Amino acid sequence: MTQPRTGAEKQILSAFLDQQRDIVLWKLDGLTDDQLRQPITPGGLYLLGLVKHLAGAEYYWLCEVFGRPAEDLGLAASDDVQVEPGDTTDSVLADYTRARAASDQAISEVELDRTGTTWLGDTVSFRWAILHVIEATAPHAGHAHFIREHTDSTTGTCLRPTFRTKAN
Question: What phi, psi does 123 have (nearest 5°)?
Answer without folding.
Answer: -95, 130
